[in-house]
Amino acid sequence: MVVDCPDAPALADFYQRLLGWEVKFHEPDWVLLRPSEGGTGLSFQSEAAYVPPVWPERAGEQQKMLHLDIRVDDLDEAGAYAVALGATLAEFQPQDDVRVFFDPAGHPFCLFLH
Predict the structure, then answer these.
(1) Helices H / strands E in the chain, number of each
(2) Which Pfam families does this one have (predicted)?
(3) Beta-sheet pairing, 30-34 with 42-46
């Protein structure tokens, strides 16, 4: 999976720290992360025309194409860590056991209880 963004190395750095994954390949405009135990990774590609999605979605505005769900043991602790890394808590929160955040490029992602 490739995530478009304005600055691939910067966004990859955010997710590397958030997820604890390793950089497996790095070019100026493309970075691949993978978990150390193997499995599917995430790639990040710089895209000059990138426009961040809005959340919640609104007709006629940039829609999200995907979002990541990340399972955590403690929403408050994991949320504070994500914010310390550069995430922003979304104003709209649809569920009590899920927290929606925006990564530094504006992609929404969810932390949810284990």
Answers:
(1) 2, 8
(2) Glyoxalase_6
(3) antiparallel
User: What digits encode the pLDDT tens for the residues 31-45?
Assistant: 999 999 999 999 999
**Pairwise CA distance, residues 10 & 12, whole Å:** 5
Tell me which fold the domain 51-114 belongs to: 2,3-Dihydroxybiphenyl 1,2-Dioxygenase; domain 1 (3.10.180)
- Give CATH for domain 1-49: 3.30.720.120
Domain residue spans of the chain: 1-49, 51-114
Report the alpha-carbon angle 60-66-69, nearest 5: 130
pTM over 0.85: yes
CA dihedral 59, 1, 69, 14 (to 10 degrees): -100
**Token pair for residue 82?**
């994500």
Q: Is 103 helix (H, G, I), strand (E, B) or coil?
A: coil
The Cβ of residue 102 has, within 10 Å, a number of other Cβ atoms equal to 19
